[in-house]
């Protein structure tokens, strides 16, 4: 059986711990799913006797209004990961740049489609920030490059001016640029630093977004991409079955879009709790990297079984051992409500 390496493996965790579980492994909105989204999803089940709209017309139109883009520049999918794989298989890039560490599905999708992945290494000495050094790696041999802002698992944003320089460089070199903004709405600046306004200037740009994180609905699987390249989006569509987004997921997305301030409310909580959690983790002697979003990367030098120790106490965290560029004593924890954060620190004190 294939090993599950992402966060949020509740099924696997419950095989070890049958009691109440504190899940810090999935980086979701700490406010949880909005009640309006839950109700819309439940109501939509009654319509599950019909096929869902294969074109997600109402949802794409609502996304376009919110993101201030044309409806034809929006394509929905079964989560952002679905769109990453669609992109890889529709474009079949030969050589792709990926930062390290970052979300593993980029490299997995490219390699599954037969492409070669080259890594631009981010360093702990620089808090894993992307710097202008990446420009030297954007050469004529590349077909595509992936960037994640804020990056997963490091929690660091890419400087907007640097991102624009990257886009200009890639336009010159005819490199497709894929920017994952899935966590942007929960970051300190929110979506005001999004690149959505640059789509017309850079037809080589693809933006990835998801409802998963912002509205705490990972089980519904709903993401979307934005691009001004109509041919590219057509290729995306051809590399998926027609009904890739369920009716309940589409209804949930429409309900979420009706609550545009919900992520902003979460950011207020995140800012306070992240500061408290960072201080508490450092008091335990951990190396904690500064975060700009709702999760924190930390290192517990020499301890490579912290995930297993905590799970035995009903707490689930994300091991970062499978990230390229990180070692087995790196971990990622989500920022949760205060009582849960206290539970995490209490459990860490017990196991260490």
Q: Could you tell me the mean pLDDT?
A: 95
**SS-based class:** alpha/beta
> What distance lies between the first and last C-alpha atoms, to the nearest angstrom?
31 Å
Q: Give the neighbour order of strands across the main sheet.
A: 2-8-7-6-5-3-4
Q: Using only CA atoms, what is the Rg?
A: 20 Å
Residues in helices, as a percent range: 25-40%
**What summary fits the major beta sheet?**
7 strands, mixed
Task: Give the DSSP E fraction (strand runs of 2 or more residues).
Answer: 15-25%
Low-confidence segments = none
How many strands appear in the DSSP assignment? 13
**Total of DSSP H or I helical runs spanning 4+ residues:** 12
- Spatial shape: globular
Element pattern in H and E: HEHHEHEHEEHEEHEHHHEEHEEEH
Architecture blueprint of SSEs:
Elements: H1 10-14, E1 22-23, H2 35-45, H3 57-67, E2 74-77, H4 80-91, E3 95-100, H5 105-112, E4 116-121, E5 144-148, H6 160-173, E6 176-180, E7 205-210, H7 211-214, E8 223-226, H8 230-238, H9 247-257, H10 262-283, E9 287-288, E10 295-299, H11 306-311, E11 315-316, E12 318-319, E13 330-334, H12 338-351
Parallel strand pairs: 1-11, 3-4, 3-5, 5-6, 6-7
Antiparallel strand pairs: 2-8, 7-8, 9-10, 10-13, 12-13
Helix pairs in contact: 2-9, 3-9, 4-5, 4-8, 10-12
């Amino acid at each position: 059986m294939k090993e599950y390496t992402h966060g949020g493996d509740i099924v696997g965790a419950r095989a070890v711990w049958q009691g109440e579980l504190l899940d810090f492994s999935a980086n979701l909105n700490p406010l949880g799913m909005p009640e309006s989204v839950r109700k819309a999803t439940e109501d939509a089940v009654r319509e599950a006797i019909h096929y869902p709209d294969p074109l997600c017309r109402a949802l794409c139109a609502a996304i376009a209004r919110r993101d201030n883009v044309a409806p034809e520049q929006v394509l929905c999918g079964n989560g952002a990961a679905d769109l990453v794989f669609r992109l890889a298989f529709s474009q079949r890039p030969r050589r792709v740049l990926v930062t390290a560490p970052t979300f593993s599905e980029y490299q997995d999708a490219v390699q599954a489609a037969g492409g070669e992945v080259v890594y631009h290494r981010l360093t702990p000495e620089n808090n894993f920030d992307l710097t202008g050094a990446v420009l030297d790696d954007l050469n004529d041999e590349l077909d595509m490059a992936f960037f994640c802002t804020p990056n997963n698992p490091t929690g660091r944003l890419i400087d907007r001016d640097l991102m624009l320089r990257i886009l200009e460089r890639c336009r010159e070199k005819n490199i497709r640029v894929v920017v994952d903004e899935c966590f942007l709405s929960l970051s300190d600046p929110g979506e005001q630093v999004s690149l959505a306004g640059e789509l017309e200037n850079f037809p080589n740009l693809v933006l990835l977004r998801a409802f998963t994180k912002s509205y705490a609905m990972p089980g519904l699987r709903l993401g979307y991409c934005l691009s001004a390249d109509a041919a590219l989006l057509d290729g995306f569509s051809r590399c998926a079955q027609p009904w890739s987004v369920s009716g309940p997921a589409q209804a949930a997305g429409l309900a979420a879009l009706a609550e545009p301030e919900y992520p902003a409310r979460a950011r207020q909580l995140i800012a306070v709790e992240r500061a408290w959690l960072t201080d508490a983790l450092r008091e335990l002697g951990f190396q904690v990297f500064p975060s700009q979003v709702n999760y924190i990367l930390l290192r517990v030098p020499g301890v490579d079984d912290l995930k297993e120790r905590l799970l035995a106490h009903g707490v689930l965290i994300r091991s970062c051992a499978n990230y390229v560029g990180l070692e087995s004593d790196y971990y990622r924890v989500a920022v949760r409500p205060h009582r849960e954060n206290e539970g995490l620190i209490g459990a860490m004190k017990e196991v260490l």
